[in-house]
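Weekly sync, protein design subgroup
Attendees: M.S., D.O., the rotation student, P.L. (late)

Item 1: inverse folding check
M.S. brought a backbone from last month's batch and wanted to see whether the design step gives back something sensible before we order anything. D.O. pointed out we never logged the input encoding, so this time it goes straight into the notes. Structure tokens as presented (382 positions):
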């Protein structure tokens, strides 16, 4: 359960401990759904919607949302990696409208201290329709393009919904619109595990004849040095003795193997043999502390122009994602809007998302924990 693996207090936990009223909807990872003291909580897109699953706390809040919107609550617009583009659009619009209907109603009915609401519509739209909007995308359909306006039209709809929400709020309420990532064209995909196999770093009992997700039972761990997980970036793990059940890399050789793999991954070319601007990091270079067993290497293929595939079998380079049709990958920079201006001391060219939590705590006159990685750098004037 992903939410149970979060060992630190989240923003709404601090408010909850202070006796403040919060609504948290769809913030991943949010399953199992926690019960808050005076707050209300709804699971994220990772929440299974099988019969009997508790997707809201308290459960009567979930029933209230469904009665309010006259429809079963949508935690996601899935499936969105599909060729059924009309169906994806319909689900995205329905989910967005349902969520804003509920948010506008709650804004007028209850005096909440914090509402933290994730809207998955833009993310799903990017993955399903980026290739129709971006004329330089490798899979752009050209003149015969029935969805050329899908992204602009949705953003106009989204802007209208945000305006509706703003008009539902008193003037002294701070409204922030923030994304945790941006989007860019998916230029291709790389099967890092297949690359590891061809270099002798990953050994299987039998190589499948067709692309197959890598599973632990497929691996000959006695001869394997490294393996990878797919996603927006590659997470590479070393088979370290003393840490892994059948580790083979001696602890004294760990850093040399990390450096070797990092150098070779950074030099991995694209399908045409051209250099890729790949970024490879050790997690200790990016994070103040690492919880659990972090990846040994974090690899942004082509600076996020290429997706990492977790499969084995077939070639190293692919034109598409292995989990379904996908036009976009995540990108570094997102968006930021504020209903009230930032003070001049916080008007630096770049805002850091990691400073949001401490800034909100200070805004609400709550103590900021000493061990926060971020700081209260965002200050708003009214």
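Designed sequence read out in the meeting:
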């Amino acid at each position: 359960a992903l939410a149970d693996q979060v060992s630190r207090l989240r923003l709404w936990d601090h408010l909850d401990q202070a006796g403040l009223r919060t609504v948290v909807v769809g913030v991943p990872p949010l399953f199992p759904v926690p019960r808050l003291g005076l707050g209300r909580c709804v699971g994220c897109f990772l929440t299974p919607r099988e019969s009997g699953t508790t997707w809201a706390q308290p459960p009567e809040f979930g029933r209230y949302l469904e009665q309010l919107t006259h429809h079963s609550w949508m935690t996601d617009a899935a499936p969105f990696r599909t060729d059924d583009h009309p169906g994806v659009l319909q689900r995205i619009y329905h989910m967005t409208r349902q969520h804003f209907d509920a948010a506008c109603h709650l804004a007028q009915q209850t005096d909440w201290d914090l509402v933290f609401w994730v809207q998955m519509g833009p993310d799903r739209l990017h993955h399903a329709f980026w290739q129709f909007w971006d004329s330089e995308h490798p899979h752009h359909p050209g003149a015969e393009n029935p969805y050329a306006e899908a992204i602009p039209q949705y953003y106009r709809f989204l802007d209208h919904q945000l305006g509706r929400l703003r008009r539902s709020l008193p003037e002294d309420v701070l409204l922030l619109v923030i994304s945790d990532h941006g989007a860019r064209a998916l230029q291709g995909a790389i099967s890092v595990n297949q690359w590891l196999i061809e270099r002798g770093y990953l050994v299987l009992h039998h190589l499948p004849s067709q692309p197959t997700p890598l599973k632990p039972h497929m691996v000959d761990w006695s001869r394997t040095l490294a393996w990878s997980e797919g996603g927006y970036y590659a997470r590479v793990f070393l088979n370290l003795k003393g840490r892994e059940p059948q580790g083979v890399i001696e602890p004294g050789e760990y850093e040399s193997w990390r450096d070797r793999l990092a150098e070779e991954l950074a030099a991995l070319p694209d399908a045409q043999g051209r250099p890729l601007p790949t970024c490879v990091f050790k997690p200790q270079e990016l994070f103040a502390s690492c919880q659990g067993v972090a990846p040994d290497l974090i690899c942004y293929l082509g600076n996020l122009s290429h997706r990492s595939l977790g499969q084995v079998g077939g070639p190293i380079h692919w034109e598409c994602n292995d989990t379904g049709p996908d036009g976009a990958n995540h990108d570094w920079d997102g968006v930021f809007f504020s209903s009230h201006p930032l003070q001049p001391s916080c008007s630096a060219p770049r805002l850091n998302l990691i400073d949001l939590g401490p800034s909100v705590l200070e805004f609400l006159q709550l103590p900021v924990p000493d061990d926060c990685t971020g700081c209260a750098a965002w200050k708003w004037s009214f």
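Discussion: The mean pLDDT is 92. Residues 85-109 form the longest helix (25 residues).
Action: P.L. to compare against the previous round before Friday.
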